[in-house]
Write a structure and sequence with these properties.
Number of strands: 0
Oligomer: single chain
Radius of gyration: 21 Å
Number of domains: 2
Largest sheet: none
Number of helices: 14
Distance between the termini: 32 Å
Organism: Caulobacter zeae
Strand content: under 5%
Keywords: Membrane, Transmembrane, Transmembrane helix
InterPro entries: Low_temperature_requirement_A
Helix content: over 70%
Order of helices and strands: HHHHHHHHHHHHHH
Protein name: Low temperature requirement protein A
Length: about 400
């Protein structure tokens, strides 16, 4: 990409990698707390309703984070006005995150107000910041219009209770997740075209990789804190080891050749905005959700490693890696236009464990799911080395 500047607060693009700044890393700390709150919420409410509520809150947290990552892909985080905006989003993010445990109880309105404040406030600021670039300005005005509509539902839900709140918030998140696919079409303002979005692929790839590190870090914190409070019997030690190896395997799979190659592929795409939208805005939520669910399963296994695996433990141990691998499959398809045979085979192996799960202990099931992840990681590493050997040959 040639050197460009679309306005006073936009990044200068000189063709190189736009590095992730320290303030962006500082900003992410709020979302470390958010991931912790979400995983603890799922541990405390393992019912179907609890899963639905936690999933909805995760979708909101992810949307607040990924929209900010897109904004800092365009705006320069080292400019004071942008830094002030990020600090204000962090402050509202702390309020939102502290409200997560009781978002469907007494702090629903507070959660909704903080979330809507983040989304609408940041988008209005960005529209003002890029006012010299008519295309980007229109884009963010359209985004703001959609967020205002969903914001009405968020706040209305915060004033309601129980099923009515859940229904309102589900409608709000559905509107927001549909909006990028609809091009943010707005009466009088038209539709945004991804071909007009100037995306620095390496920056967005690094931002999402760092969020994945946050999720993996939370999984390590959960297993470490749980194991620290237990007597170190052989089965507890084995449960901890299995969970730890599973985290390493997920890191191995994610940070294989794919993570770095994706930014290169996006930068050479005819429509980098479309590829980045599918790969990072949408698909990338699944690996994060998978890591969180797997961490919850690890906590339960360390507490109850023997006996028969009950449905909630089985669902977490199998569902977490399954979501993680599914996200990887969709990511590769979006970026490289290929289906991943290794991750597809891993998903099939996990599905085959479903009928086995009631017959084995939580520890054995944990070892089996960890084994699947390790095999997928080994398969991908061997495939990468083989392709490299073929190219050198």
């Amino acid at each position: 990409m040639s050197k460009t500047r679309g306005g006073g607060l936009l990044r200068i693009r000189e063709g190189g990698h736009a590095r992730v700044t320290y303030i962006e890393l500082f900003f992410d700390l709020v979302f470390v707390f958010a991931i912790t709150q979400l995983s603890h919420g799922l541990i405390g409410h393992p019912s179907l309703l609890g899963v639905v509520e936690t999933g909805l809150l995760l979708m909101a947290v992810w949307w607040a984070w990924i929209y900010t990552a897109w904004v800092t892909n365009w705006l320069d985080p080292e400019r004071p006005p942008v830094q002030i905006m990020l600090f204000l989003v962090m402050a509202a993010g702390m309020v939102m995150t502290m409200s997560i445990p009781t978002a469907f109880e007494g702090r629903g309105l507070l959660f909704a107000l903080a979330y809507v404040g983040i989304q609408v406030g940041r988008s209005l600021f960005t529209a003002w910041s890029v006012r010299q670039d008519s295309g980007l300005k229109l884009n963010f005005l359209r985004i703001t219009a959609w967020l205002v509509v969903s914001g009405v539902l968020w706040i209305s839900g915060g004033l309601l209770h129980n099923e009515a709140r859940l229904a309102c918030w589900a409608a709000a998140i559905a509107i927001e997740y549909a909006s990028p696919a609809a091009g943010f079409w707005t009466p009088g303002l038209g539709r945004s075209r991804t071909a007009d979005w100037t995306v620095e692929g390496a920056h967005l790839a690094e931002r999402c990789a760092l969020f994945t590190i946050i999720a993996l870090g939370e999984s390590i914190l959960v297993m470490g804190a749980t194991a620290a409070g237990m007597a170190w019997t052989p089965v507890v030690a084995a449960s901890f080891a299995s969970a730890f190896v599973a985290s390493i395997a997920m890191w191995w799979i994610y940070f294989s050749f794919t993570a770095e190659a994706a930014s290169e592929a996006i930068s050479h795409s005819d429509d980098p905005g479309r590829v980045a939208r599918i790969a990072y805005t949408y698909s990338h939520l699944l690996p994060v959700a998978g890591i969180i669910v797997a961490a919850v399963g690890d906590e339960w296994v360390i507490h109850h490693p023997v006996g028969h695996a009950d449905p909630k433990i089985s669902a977490a141990l199998i569902g977490g890696p399954l979501l993680f691998l599914l996200g990887g499959v969709l990511f590769k398809r979006a970026v490289f236009r290929i289906w991943s045979p290794s991750r597809g085979a891993g998903m099939a192996a996990l599905l085959l464990l479903i009928p086995v799960s009631p017959l084995v202990s939580p520890l054995v099931l944990s070892l089996l799911t960890t084994g699947v992840l390790v095999l997928v990681g080994a398969w991908e590493s061997l495939a990468i080395r083989w392709r490299g050997h073929q190219l050198r040959g």
